[in-house]
Amino acid sequence: MAPSKMKAAVTCAEPGKVEVREIDVPKPGPTDVLVKVVAAASNPTDWKTITWSPTTGNVVGMDFAGTVDEIGSEVPAGKFKVGDRVAGMVHGAAFPNGAYAEYVTAPSSLLLPLPETWSFEQGAQLGVAGYTACLCLYHAQSLPSPLSPTKDPIDLLVWGGSSSVGQYVIQLAHLGGLRVLATSSPKNFPLLKSLGADLVFSYADPEAPEKIREATGGKLAHAVDCISEKDTPDNVARSIGDAGGEVSVLLKYDSRRPDVKVNHVLGYFLLGKDLEIPMKLPLDVAQYNFGPQAAKILTETLANGTLKPGPIKIIPNGLEGVSVGLDYLKEGKASGEKVIYRIADTP
Ligand SMILES: NC(=O)c1ccc[n+]([C@@H]2O[C@H](COP(=O)([O-])OP(=O)(O)OC[C@H]3O[C@@H](n4cnc5c(N)ncnc54)[C@H](OP(=O)(O)O)[C@@H]3O)[C@@H](O)[C@H]2O)c1
After folding, report:
1. Domains of the chain
2. Which of 46, 83, 210, 222 is paired with 60 by a 20 to 30 Å CA distance?
3. Where is the Enoyl reductase (ER) domain (predicted)?
């Protein structure tokens, strides 16, 4: 049973920073679950949101792992019980409810049972990256999933394979039977290969697109641009084969080629609300409706042991370390790792 008050890292007068305050423990709605947070993870959207859409008193953070504390009255009976280990995602920095807190209330439909083989710290990386990877592969494109792997030779390019989302795109695509080509810094090639990448390329190599075209016989038709800014839209477009194809993108941009379709995904839509923060956007109902399918793919690959955690970097001092972790991401220092906080480390 949760107490009435808790510590949380909330938005404050200084844009881009958080402040640890004592606030009310959120109440779960009928279809929600209250989770006692053990570990939380940072995403680039956390620092972007609190810099671009400053508010005060909203709890920051989207990704969390912990134990079930209280179950909403309309959550299907038997789906969860108090004490279950779970991971999930919520909309951070927009409400007095978020991942950087001792308790978070989250939609039960997106809550993932966390296997014993995953620590809470590893589990905190699952929500945003895992769900966004599913949106890229199975909603924005209709690629074969681990639940029905293909035997056909299908190539997929993952540009930015060492990013948080890229690591799950590689794993899921590999489990779905695709041949995966991925880019990163050379120091992260062993990581990409351990996740299931078949061929790896340095994104800093100006000839990488030509090398990818050569490796795919000029027939590449599917790509996920996990970075979606600076030179990556051009490089991905150059890699796609002569007959054109489809690219899933994380930040909205226009296609560089008339024969290449660009499909933008947004993990926020899985939460089923119009967006006010960090930007105003009406709900994309189709992306929202895809949520249960993504939850099934992630739940089954977690349960059968095929989905593996990526590397993590634990920032000291729990909630008091959040500003340090967000600066680390903002400065582009995260390389093939997820930034994590242990709530119990908060002084
Ligand atoms: N639309 C959505 O729903 C959604 C969801 C999640 C994230 N995003 C956005 O997607 C972007 C990535 O987020 P994330 O959390 O996955 O990233 P992240 O883990 O913070 O990304 C860090 C990685 O990016 C790689 N990288 C940097 N520049 C690159 C380039 N030019 N080409 C290839 N790789 C490059 C680095 O590779 P090396 O270390 O190997 O050099 C590093 O490992 C952010 O802009 C984020 O806001 C959008």
Report:
1. 5-125+309-345 (3.90.180.10), 131-268 (3.40.50.720)
2. 83
3. 13-340
